[in-house]
Each structure stands twice: as structure tokens, then as C-alpha cells.
Specification:
The chain is of the alpha+beta class. It is 27% helix and 36% strand. The chain has a 15-stranded mixed sheet that branches.
């Protein structure tokens, strides 16, 4: 077994700058008989290219390789895209980003998020088959596609994540703090969307809504448990929309929504539309394109098709 660490130095606002690499070098020194290597990204999509090349190199020698995404949800997404299609590659996670929502979902099965920061436990980890979400759309007459590990947020959630992305650049604003500040700003404007959504060929929603989430994992926004019934291994996409409800109503609903208790709210069927599906189509109704967030990355497309890819890759579960 080979091990590769792909470090995104920009993750977590650079707070891990140099520290994580030093810890990995200590791990290498303490395990001289293991093949462990370090790579650093320098720009967008670097992690995808590196993961693909590392997996191909291991294939030549007939080895399996665990490729650790050292960063946030965006870095995990990039590495997942790079290893997709390589049966010898396993996704590892060292969560040093701002949100770390994907690892929160992994931790629901066993342990906690801090276990994934303990490098001395990686050799005892167990691979688990997990689903991916495939997004596809038409751009300049050509079909584009991208794979998502955690989830897609459109409307209020997506707008909040987009604004939080910008707010994180401000001094003294943390990852979770930027999300809460963005929530407050977007509540003041009550920014939602107007969409036509179908799920497995059936009408799901048409018209205004506050937010829509198509998810593989259960968390978004740095710990908001938006989809409490999510399962990375069930071959289904969580699809939830919060209707165009009054601002005051959403403010009262938000604590339950954040805590993963949205379905415990009395009369929730009047506020939320929910299903699980294998394929989803989302069409913008206000403009030719729509902005949304997939695993922390900002996208802008026209009609979006979303398909589940059951057990598409393997992910390393840390067993404390």
C-alpha cells in the first residue's frame, strides 16, 4: 500500500501553513518502510491532476494507494474527481478546511472529526465504498460534467455559501463565523431562487423557493445538518426544498434546520418538500443560468442534471 498526501496550503485560511507538512514528515521518519509522499497544490484543479497522476503511477506498479485530501470540502471534491475511475485508489481525508462538512458525515458512522487529524491512525483505517453525485450541463454546445462528494446548494444556502466564501477573506472572520454572518445578510435580503425541479422524472417543485439541496452527505455551511437522513452508501440523493416562506418563519425554523431536526417541526410538510432520488433535473426560471455551490465550489450553469453514482469510489474510514 502506498500513501500520498495532497496539501492545499490555502485551506482553512492558511492556518495550517507548514504545520501539517511537518507532521507528515514526522510520520514518514517514523515509518521508513512505508511509501509515503507529500504533494502541494499551487492552484485550482491541481489536486485533481495530482490525484489522477498518483493513481496512474501506482497502477503501473500494481499497488493500491491512499490519496489524502488535506484541506476542506473543495480539496476533497478535487481529489475525488481525480481518483474516480481508478480502482486502485482510495480517498483519504485530513480535514483542515473551514467547513469540513464531508468529514462530519463520515464521522456519523464511527468516531468524530478529530480522529481524521490523528495521522498515526491512518494505517488502521478501513476502506468503504461510497456514492458520488455526477453533475452535468451544457456549456457552449458541449456537455460538461463534474463529481460531487458531499452536496449541492441552490438558493439561500448556495447564496450564503457564496457570500461566506468572500467574507472569509476579511480579517478576524473565521470559517463558521463567515457562514453565520452570511446567513444574517442573506436573511435581510431574503435571497432565494425560482426553479423547476424534477426527481426521477416526476415533478418535485416549480416556482419560488428559499433553498434547494441535492446531497450525498448530511451537512453544509460548516456544520448545518441540512439533510439528516443522508447516507453516503445508499445509492440515493437527498433532495430537499424549503418553500418561499416568510423571513420570520425561517428565522424561527433555522435552529431546528441547523441541528438536523427539521422533520420534527410541526406542520413541516407545509414548509418543506423532500424526497430521495437517483436522478434530478434543476432548471432556472429567472434567468438562463443560476449560481450554486457544490462542495464549497461556486458554479454557474443553465439546466443542471444530477445523477447518483452508486459506490463510485472508496473512502478511508478512520477507526479510533
Amino acid at each position: 500500500m502506498k500513501y500520498a498526501f495532497i496539501i492545499n496550503p490555502a485551506s482553512g485560511q492558511g492556518q495550517q501553513d507548514g504545520i501539517l507538512e511537518s507532521r507528515i514528515k514526522e510520520l514518514i521518519a517514523g515509518n521508513p518502510n512505508r511509501d509515503i509522499r507529500i504533494y502541494n497544490t499551487r492552484g485550482e484543479k491541481d489536486a485533481t491532476v495530482l490525484a489522477d497522476l498518483i493513481a496512474k503511477d501506482a497502477e503501473v506498479s500494481g499497488d493500491e494507494v491512499v490519496i489524502f485530501a488535506c484541506g476542506g470540502d473543495g480539496t476533497i471534491q478535487e481529489v475525488a474527481n481525480g481518483i474516480y475511475g481508478h480502482d486502485n485508489a482510495i480517498l483519504g481525508v485530513v480535514p483542515v478546511g473551514s467547513g469540513n462538512d464531508f468529514v462530519r458525515e463520515l464521522s456519523r458512522k464511527r468516531g468524530n472529526t478529530h480522529d481524521y487529524l490523528k495521522l498515526d491512525t491512518i494505517f488502521d483505517g478501513m476502506p468503504m465504498n461510497m456514492d458520488l453525485i455526477r453533475m452535468s450541463w451544457i456549456e457552449k454546445g458541449e456537455e460538461k460534467c463534474h463529481y460531487i462528494a458531499n452536496g449541492i446548494n441552490i438558493g439561500f444556502d448556495g447564496n450564503t455559501a457564496i457570500l461566506a466564501h468572500d467574507l472569509k477573506r476579511l480579517p478576524l472572520v473565521s470559517g463558521s463565523g463567515s457562514y453565520l454572518l452570511a446567513v444574517a445578510r442573506n436573511l435581510a435580503a431574503k435571497k432565494g431562487q425560482k426553479l423547476r425541479i424534477t426527481a426521477d422524472g416526476k415533478d418535485f417543485h416549480t416556482g419560488k423557493l428559499l433553498l434547494a439541496t441535492a446531497a450525498n452527505g448530511g451537512f453544509c455551511g460548516g456544520g448545518v445538518q441540512s439533510c439528516p437522513r443522508a447516507d453516503l452508501t445508499d445509492g440515493l440523493i437527498e433532495l430537499m426544498a424549503i418553500k418561499d416562506i416568510p423571513r420570520r418563519k425561517f428565522i424561527s425554523l433555522f435552529p431546528k434546520y441547523k441541528a438536523g431536526k427539521i422533520f420534527e417541526v410541526r406542520g413541516v410538510e407545509d414548509l418543506v418538500t423532500y424526497t430521495q432520488a437517483k436522478n434530478i433535473v434543476i432548471e432556472p426560471m429567472l434567468a438562463p443560468t443560476m449560481k450554486f455551490v457544490g462542495d464549497g465550489e461556486i458554479f454557474e450553469t443553465g439546466t443542471l442534471r444530477i445523477d447518483v453514482m452508486p459506490k463510485a469510489i472508496r473512502v478511508l474510514m478512520i477507526c479510533p
